[in-house]
Write a structure and sequence with these properties.
This protein is an alpha+beta fold. The protein folds into 2 domains: 94 residues, no CATH class; 166 residues, YojJ-like (1. Helix content is 52%, strand content 13%. It contains 11 helices and 7 strands. The protein has a 7-stranded mixed sheet with strand order 2-4-3-1-5-6-7, sandwiched between helices. Helix 10 packs antiparallel against helix 11. The chain starts with a helix and ends with a helix.
């Protein structure tokens, strides 16, 4: 059959079927890429190819064993890829949620930048998460302590400084709009295997939180004094204070002309920060 005849024979259902398969495969690859699930996925593909070869060669005993394996295939996928499935469903749910502008204004951004500057100068590390549409307490390993206070540089610095009376300094500070709503939030750690070996728990937690939510997470390295931003599973190269302010302006919508422009600005801020 010629290619032209094949294309003519295709119905809209065939095209839709192909597109849906492509979207599902692409989505699955995006979820499992750069994680420990990649070798497992490759192993499952090899087993699938082996099953086809066994059936073609009519090897009855081996085919029987593989048939029992594939009878439990869905359960195996759920067990092996439970973290990746959870992340994929979270990302899918984010796309279904109606977009809203993230509350905040220039004074909030300036307070955050001032606090980060003072934290870096003080040789302290911290994480500051700007909450988007998702409640970060729902995806955290531990929601930490509830706070209800305006965003002020002095308070952000106080929450970041290690002190016997400040048990929340190791976790993330959560900002929702122009309010500090949580402190000491314990972030889920990323399972990515391609990260800089110098990244410790703080950086892995920032990336993990950004993977499981639509938050933008500022992370300050205690050892190197570097400022980075994690968003949608990506972490930026070290930023200057001016670059940090640009990222925050884009996220909170301080330069937003409309909701749609703000969404594009937020995505651009994350994409521009990939190392």
């Amino acid at each position: 059959m010629k290619i032209g005849d094949l294309l003519t024979a295709l119905s809209w259902r065939d095209v839709l079927d192909f597109v849906l398969l492509y979207v599902m495969a692409y989505g699955a690859l995006r979820v499992v890429r750069r994680t420990r699930a990649v070798p497992v996925a490759l192993a499952l593909l090899v087993i699938g190819a082996l099953a086809g070869l066994v059936r073609w060669l009519d090897l009855i005993a081996t085919a029987t064993v593989l048939r029992y394996f594939f009878d439990s295939f869905i359960l195996i996928l759920i067990v092996v890829f439970r973290q990746e499935l959870r992340r994929g469903l979270l990302l899918f749910g984010q796309r279904l949620m109606p977009h809203r502008a993230v509350a905040g204004h220039r004074s909030t951004v300036q307070e955050i930048v001032t606090a980060v500057d003072r934290i870096v100068r003080g040789g302290v590390g911290t994480m500051i998460a700007l909450q988007g549409r998702m409640d970060l307490a729902e995806v955290a390993s531990d929601p930490g302590r509830a706070v209800d206070a305006p965003v002020r540089a002095d308070l952000l610095v106080a929450l970041a400084v290690p002190h016997p009376a400040n048990l929340a300094h190791d976790g993330a500070i959560v900002i929702d709009g122009d309010r500090i709503v949580r402190a000491g939030l314990v972030c889920p750690l990323t399972v990515r295997t391609d990260l800089d070996p110098r990244f410790g728990t703080r950086h892995r937690g920032a990336i993990g939180l950004s993977e499981d939510s639509d938050a933008l997470v500022i992370v300050v390295s205690e050892e190197r004094g570097e400022i980075r931003v994690a968003y949608r599973g990506e972490i930026s190269a070290p930023l200057t204070l001016g670059e940090l302010q640009d990222r925050l302006d884009a996220f909170v919508g301080a330069r937003r002309g409309s909701e749609s422009e703000g969404a594009r600005s937020t995505d651009a801020a994350a994409a521009g920060g990939r190392p």
